[in-house]
Amino acid sequence: MSTRAGFSRSSVRGRGESESAWISVSDLMAGLMMVFLCIAVAMMRSVMIEREKIRTIAMSYKENQLAIYESLQSEFAPDLARWGATIDRDTLTVAFNNSDAMFDTGEAALSVSYQVVFEEFFPRYMNVLAPFKASVEAVRIEGHTSTGWGQNMTRNAMYFNNLRLSQDRARSVLQYVYTLDEVTTHHAWMMQNVAAVGYSSSRPIYNADGSENIEQSKRVAFRVITNSETKIHSILEESF
Topology of 61-235 in CATH? Predict the structure, then answer.
């Protein structure tokens, strides 16, 4: 009888200790789940904050982009046809498409007629950009050629000859507008933010039927690059 009683008490005590151990494990698992839940919530909140920052910058970029475009359009719309120029809203590019009037074939010296055009255009261009300088990463003066020039050469030779020509033309335009008296006050900013770039024939303009528009492909363009991309990269780097 005592043996059975002892066995019973031992069994009860064993079950109690087992249940106690099981409760402890359950409490531990519940605690860990709460910790993981808190971490997940914190991470989701952080992602939402970073996403909101990027969304805010994107909205600001669109508004700033539109403001620059509208300022360019307001200032230059009456003159575009006379200059043979266009303004692209998406890239903030003012393109001068009458390259044959700007340069002799295969040459980079700016013609007298387009010296007059750029004397009229560039000081006003800098004045338009002045209120937006804090958001402007760079201004690129881009030289472009058509794919047709130098077709008696090999493909590689044609590309590099066009590259040299487009670079020389972009640099020629930059050197000329830099010397204008009206932009002297902008020299320091220009030296840090304005560059001349040649693209050879790598970015031709096409007609609706898919054929190359030779005249528009041969162009010099002034393109505004805003700093929104730099800000987004900065946010992403801070996140990691």
Answer: 60s Ribosomal Protein L30; Chain: A; (3.30.1330)
